[in-house]
Amino acid sequence: MLFEVEARKEAEGTTLFVIDDIADSFDYKNKYAIIQYLKDMSEHDKFRLIILTHNFDFLRTIFGRSVVTYGGCFMAEKSVERVTLTPMAGSTITNPFTKDFKKKIFTDGMRRVASIPFTRNLIEYSRGTKDADYLTLTSLIHLKEGTRTITQAELDRIFGEVFPGLSGGPWVGGDEPVLEMIYAQAEIALTADEGVNFANKIVLSLAIRLRAEEFMASALDADGFDETITSNQTWHLFNAFNQRGLGSEPTLDSLRRVLLITPENIHINSFMYEPILDMSDHSLRELYSDVKMLSSADD
Fold this sequence. Notes:
The protein contains 14 helices and four strands. The protein has 299 residues and is mainly α. It has two domains: 68 residues, no CATH class; 203 residues, no CATH class. Strand 3 and strand 4 form a beta hairpin.
Protein backbone atom coordinates (compact mmCIF):
# COMPACT_ATOMS: atom_id res chain seq x y z
CA MET A 1 0.00 0.00 0.00
CA LEU A 2 2.84 2.38 0.90
CA PHE A 3 4.47 1.71 -2.48
CA GLU A 4 1.18 2.52 -4.24
CA VAL A 5 0.77 5.75 -2.25
CA GLU A 6 4.27 6.91 -3.15
CA ALA A 7 3.70 6.04 -6.81
CA ARG A 8 0.53 8.12 -6.85
CA LYS A 9 2.39 11.04 -5.27
CA GLU A 10 4.83 10.92 -8.15
CA ALA A 11 2.02 10.67 -10.72
CA GLU A 12 0.30 13.72 -9.17
CA GLY A 13 -3.14 12.29 -9.85
CA THR A 14 -6.14 12.89 -7.61
CA THR A 15 -6.75 9.74 -5.56
CA LEU A 16 -9.45 8.69 -3.13
CA PHE A 17 -8.18 6.29 -0.44
CA VAL A 18 -10.62 4.21 1.61
CA ILE A 19 -8.72 3.06 4.72
CA ASP A 20 -10.39 0.43 6.90
CA ASP A 21 -9.06 -0.21 10.46
CA ILE A 22 -5.52 0.09 9.16
CA ALA A 23 -3.72 0.10 12.53
CA ASP A 24 -5.61 -2.57 14.48
CA SER A 25 -3.04 -5.36 14.24
CA PHE A 26 0.05 -3.22 14.95
CA ASP A 27 1.90 -2.50 18.17
CA TYR A 28 1.87 1.09 19.42
CA LYS A 29 5.20 2.09 17.89
CA ASN A 30 4.08 1.11 14.40
CA LYS A 31 0.53 2.34 14.99
CA TYR A 32 1.77 5.85 15.65
CA ALA A 33 4.07 5.67 12.62
CA ILE A 34 1.01 4.84 10.51
CA ILE A 35 -0.90 7.75 12.04
CA GLN A 36 1.92 10.10 11.10
CA TYR A 37 1.88 8.67 7.57
CA LEU A 38 -1.89 9.27 7.38
CA LYS A 39 -1.20 12.83 8.51
CA ASP A 40 1.24 13.28 5.64
CA MET A 41 -1.31 11.82 3.21
CA SER A 42 -4.05 14.14 4.47
CA GLU A 43 -1.85 17.16 3.73
CA HIS A 44 -1.24 16.13 0.10
CA ASP A 45 -3.40 18.34 -2.10
CA LYS A 46 -4.22 15.50 -4.53
CA PHE A 47 -5.26 12.94 -1.88
CA ARG A 48 -8.69 12.41 -0.37
CA LEU A 49 -9.09 10.05 2.61
CA ILE A 50 -12.07 8.16 3.99
CA ILE A 51 -10.93 6.44 7.19
CA LEU A 52 -13.10 3.74 8.77
CA THR A 53 -12.47 2.40 12.29
CA HIS A 54 -14.11 0.59 15.18
CA ASN A 55 -11.33 1.76 17.50
CA PHE A 56 -12.31 4.79 19.57
CA ASP A 57 -8.73 5.37 20.75
CA PHE A 58 -7.55 5.42 17.13
CA LEU A 59 -10.29 7.93 16.25
CA ARG A 60 -9.31 10.13 19.18
CA THR A 61 -5.68 10.04 18.11
CA ILE A 62 -6.17 10.89 14.44
CA PHE A 63 -8.54 13.68 15.50
CA GLY A 64 -5.95 15.02 17.94
CA ARG A 65 -3.24 14.89 15.26
CA SER A 66 -5.52 16.75 12.80
CA VAL A 67 -5.58 13.86 10.34
CA VAL A 68 -9.33 14.41 10.43
CA THR A 69 -11.01 17.69 11.29
CA TYR A 70 -13.97 18.89 13.31
CA GLY A 71 -17.04 18.26 11.17
CA GLY A 72 -15.29 15.45 9.33
CA CYS A 73 -16.00 12.67 11.87
CA PHE A 74 -19.21 10.64 11.70
CA MET A 75 -20.71 7.74 13.58
CA ALA A 76 -22.16 5.10 11.26
CA GLU A 77 -25.26 3.44 12.73
CA LYS A 78 -27.12 0.56 11.15
CA SER A 79 -30.81 0.27 11.97
CA VAL A 80 -33.45 -2.05 10.54
CA GLU A 81 -34.31 0.44 7.80
CA ARG A 82 -31.02 2.14 6.91
CA VAL A 83 -27.46 3.16 7.68
CA THR A 84 -27.12 6.69 9.04
CA LEU A 85 -24.07 8.93 9.40
CA THR A 86 -24.25 11.26 12.41
CA PRO A 87 -21.69 14.08 12.87
CA MET A 88 -19.59 13.67 16.02
CA ALA A 89 -18.85 16.72 18.14
CA GLY A 90 -15.23 17.30 19.09
CA SER A 91 -16.11 17.03 22.79
CA THR A 92 -17.64 13.61 22.17
CA ILE A 93 -14.36 12.40 20.73
CA THR A 94 -11.88 13.98 23.11
CA ASN A 95 -13.54 13.88 26.53
CA PRO A 96 -17.26 13.09 26.74
CA PHE A 97 -17.34 13.04 30.54
CA THR A 98 -15.64 16.36 31.34
CA LYS A 99 -17.05 18.30 28.40
CA ASP A 100 -20.57 16.90 28.43
CA PHE A 101 -21.72 14.50 31.17
CA LYS A 102 -20.21 16.29 34.16
CA LYS A 103 -21.81 19.62 33.24
CA LYS A 104 -25.28 18.08 33.29
CA ILE A 105 -25.13 15.76 36.32
CA PHE A 106 -27.85 17.75 38.12
CA THR A 107 -30.04 18.59 35.12
CA ASP A 108 -29.99 15.66 32.70
CA GLY A 109 -31.08 12.23 33.95
CA MET A 110 -29.43 10.32 31.11
CA ARG A 111 -26.01 11.88 31.70
CA ARG A 112 -26.42 11.65 35.47
CA VAL A 113 -26.90 7.88 35.26
CA ALA A 114 -24.14 7.53 32.64
CA SER A 115 -21.73 9.30 35.04
CA ILE A 116 -22.11 6.60 37.71
CA PRO A 117 -19.59 4.09 36.23
CA PHE A 118 -16.92 6.74 35.62
CA THR A 119 -17.30 8.18 39.12
CA ARG A 120 -16.96 4.66 40.50
CA ASN A 121 -13.73 4.23 38.52
CA LEU A 122 -12.28 7.41 40.00
CA ILE A 123 -13.09 6.23 43.53
CA GLU A 124 -11.55 2.84 42.74
CA TYR A 125 -8.31 4.47 41.59
CA SER A 126 -8.13 7.01 44.42
CA ARG A 127 -9.61 5.21 47.43
CA GLY A 128 -9.74 1.52 46.56
CA THR A 129 -12.44 -1.10 46.15
CA LYS A 130 -13.28 -1.34 49.85
CA ASP A 131 -14.37 2.30 50.04
CA ALA A 132 -18.02 2.71 51.08
CA ASP A 133 -18.87 5.01 48.18
CA TYR A 134 -17.25 2.62 45.71
CA LEU A 135 -19.46 -0.17 47.06
CA THR A 136 -22.53 2.07 46.87
CA LEU A 137 -21.92 2.80 43.19
CA THR A 138 -21.17 -0.87 42.57
CA SER A 139 -24.69 -1.51 43.85
CA LEU A 140 -25.98 0.67 41.00
CA ILE A 141 -24.10 -1.39 38.42
CA HIS A 142 -24.92 -4.81 39.88
CA LEU A 143 -28.00 -5.76 41.87
CA LYS A 144 -27.07 -5.91 45.56
CA GLU A 145 -29.03 -6.01 48.80
CA GLY A 146 -29.02 -2.21 49.13
CA THR A 147 -29.50 -1.30 45.46
CA ARG A 148 -33.16 -0.35 45.76
CA THR A 149 -32.61 1.99 48.72
CA ILE A 150 -29.86 4.20 47.24
CA THR A 151 -31.32 7.70 46.83
CA GLN A 152 -30.57 10.67 44.63
CA ALA A 153 -29.42 12.61 47.72
CA GLU A 154 -26.81 9.94 48.43
CA LEU A 155 -25.68 10.06 44.82
CA ASP A 156 -25.46 13.88 45.06
CA ARG A 157 -23.19 13.54 48.09
CA ILE A 158 -20.86 11.15 46.26
CA PHE A 159 -20.70 13.33 43.16
CA GLY A 160 -19.95 16.36 45.34
CA GLU A 161 -17.10 14.64 47.19
CA VAL A 162 -15.51 13.19 44.06
CA PHE A 163 -15.87 16.42 42.06
CA PRO A 164 -15.27 19.37 44.45
CA GLY A 165 -16.82 22.60 43.23
CA LEU A 166 -19.43 20.84 41.11
CA SER A 167 -22.22 23.38 40.56
CA GLY A 168 -25.91 23.08 39.83
CA GLY A 169 -27.10 20.69 42.54
CA PRO A 170 -28.85 19.18 44.25
CA TRP A 171 -30.99 16.91 42.10
CA VAL A 172 -34.70 17.64 42.48
CA GLY A 173 -36.30 14.74 44.34
CA GLY A 174 -33.53 13.69 46.71
CA ASP A 175 -35.57 10.80 48.14
CA GLU A 176 -36.10 9.19 44.75
CA PRO A 177 -34.39 5.77 44.39
CA VAL A 178 -31.63 5.90 41.77
CA LEU A 179 -32.63 2.47 40.46
CA GLU A 180 -35.99 3.89 39.39
CA MET A 181 -34.19 6.61 37.45
CA ILE A 182 -31.95 4.07 35.71
CA TYR A 183 -34.97 2.16 34.46
CA ALA A 184 -36.87 5.36 33.58
CA GLN A 185 -33.95 6.71 31.55
CA ALA A 186 -33.61 3.36 29.79
CA GLU A 187 -37.23 3.73 28.69
CA ILE A 188 -36.44 7.17 27.28
CA ALA A 189 -33.43 5.72 25.45
CA LEU A 190 -35.72 3.19 23.76
CA THR A 191 -37.42 5.93 21.75
CA ALA A 192 -34.62 8.50 21.39
CA ASP A 193 -33.42 9.57 17.97
CA GLU A 194 -30.64 7.38 16.62
CA GLY A 195 -27.16 8.88 16.68
CA VAL A 196 -23.94 8.93 18.69
CA ASN A 197 -25.90 8.60 21.96
CA PHE A 198 -22.99 7.66 24.26
CA ALA A 199 -24.98 8.36 27.41
CA ASN A 200 -27.98 6.39 26.17
CA LYS A 201 -25.84 3.36 25.42
CA ILE A 202 -24.25 3.41 28.86
CA VAL A 203 -27.67 3.73 30.51
CA LEU A 204 -29.10 0.87 28.44
CA SER A 205 -26.09 -1.30 29.28
CA LEU A 206 -26.54 -0.61 33.01
CA ALA A 207 -30.27 -1.28 32.83
CA ILE A 208 -29.77 -4.49 30.86
CA ARG A 209 -27.36 -5.86 33.48
CA LEU A 210 -29.56 -4.88 36.40
CA ARG A 211 -32.74 -6.28 34.82
CA ALA A 212 -30.98 -9.54 33.96
CA GLU A 213 -29.55 -9.94 37.45
CA GLU A 214 -32.90 -9.07 39.00
CA PHE A 215 -34.57 -11.77 36.92
CA MET A 216 -31.97 -14.46 37.63
CA ALA A 217 -31.74 -13.73 41.37
CA SER A 218 -35.52 -13.89 41.66
CA ALA A 219 -35.67 -17.17 39.73
CA LEU A 220 -32.91 -18.65 41.87
CA ASP A 221 -34.89 -17.64 44.95
CA ALA A 222 -31.63 -17.25 46.83
CA ASP A 223 -31.74 -14.33 49.23
CA GLY A 224 -28.24 -12.98 49.65
CA PHE A 225 -26.89 -15.17 46.85
CA ASP A 226 -25.52 -12.13 45.02
CA GLU A 227 -23.88 -10.78 48.16
CA THR A 228 -21.42 -13.70 48.17
CA ILE A 229 -20.10 -12.72 44.72
CA THR A 230 -17.15 -10.35 44.61
CA SER A 231 -16.57 -10.26 40.84
CA ASN A 232 -18.23 -11.24 37.54
CA GLN A 233 -21.61 -11.23 39.26
CA THR A 234 -23.75 -11.58 36.14
CA TRP A 235 -21.69 -14.54 34.98
CA HIS A 236 -21.96 -16.30 38.35
CA LEU A 237 -25.70 -15.76 38.45
CA PHE A 238 -26.03 -17.09 34.91
CA ASN A 239 -23.98 -20.20 35.74
CA ALA A 240 -26.17 -20.96 38.75
CA PHE A 241 -29.31 -20.23 36.73
CA ASN A 242 -28.19 -22.52 33.91
CA GLN A 243 -26.87 -25.34 36.09
CA ARG A 244 -30.17 -25.55 37.95
CA GLY A 245 -32.03 -26.02 34.69
CA LEU A 246 -33.95 -22.77 34.96
CA GLY A 247 -35.31 -20.96 31.92
CA SER A 248 -36.20 -21.95 28.38
CA GLU A 249 -33.69 -21.88 25.55
CA PRO A 250 -34.93 -18.45 24.35
CA THR A 251 -34.47 -17.15 27.91
CA LEU A 252 -30.95 -18.55 28.09
CA ASP A 253 -30.21 -17.05 24.69
CA SER A 254 -31.24 -13.59 25.92
CA LEU A 255 -29.08 -13.95 29.02
CA ARG A 256 -26.11 -15.11 26.94
CA ARG A 257 -26.50 -11.98 24.82
CA VAL A 258 -26.38 -9.91 28.01
CA LEU A 259 -23.02 -11.48 28.87
CA LEU A 260 -21.75 -11.03 25.32
CA ILE A 261 -22.95 -7.52 24.52
CA THR A 262 -22.70 -5.49 27.74
CA PRO A 263 -19.26 -5.26 29.37
CA GLU A 264 -18.95 -6.51 32.95
CA ASN A 265 -17.22 -3.26 33.95
CA ILE A 266 -18.49 -0.19 32.15
CA HIS A 267 -15.84 2.53 31.93
CA ILE A 268 -15.81 5.85 30.15
CA ASN A 269 -12.44 5.45 28.55
CA SER A 270 -11.46 4.63 25.02
CA PHE A 271 -10.93 0.92 25.44
CA MET A 272 -13.88 -0.12 27.59
CA TYR A 273 -16.14 2.17 25.58
CA GLU A 274 -15.67 0.15 22.41
CA PRO A 275 -18.00 -2.77 23.16
CA ILE A 276 -20.84 -0.30 23.73
CA LEU A 277 -19.88 1.96 20.81
CA ASP A 278 -19.87 -0.97 18.43
CA MET A 279 -23.43 -1.86 19.36
CA SER A 280 -26.12 -0.05 17.43
CA ASP A 281 -28.90 1.73 19.28
CA HIS A 282 -31.27 -0.85 17.84
CA SER A 283 -29.32 -3.84 19.21
CA LEU A 284 -29.15 -2.45 22.75
CA ARG A 285 -32.80 -1.41 22.68
CA GLU A 286 -33.85 -4.83 21.45
CA LEU A 287 -31.85 -6.61 24.14
CA TYR A 288 -33.18 -4.35 26.90
CA SER A 289 -36.75 -4.98 25.74
CA ASP A 290 -36.12 -8.75 25.71
CA VAL A 291 -34.61 -8.77 29.20
CA LYS A 292 -37.39 -6.53 30.53
CA MET A 293 -39.93 -9.03 29.22
CA LEU A 294 -38.15 -11.79 31.17
CA SER A 295 -38.49 -9.74 34.33
CA SER A 296 -42.17 -8.98 33.64
CA ALA A 297 -42.94 -12.63 32.93
CA ASP A 298 -41.23 -13.63 36.17
CA ASP A 299 -43.24 -11.07 38.15
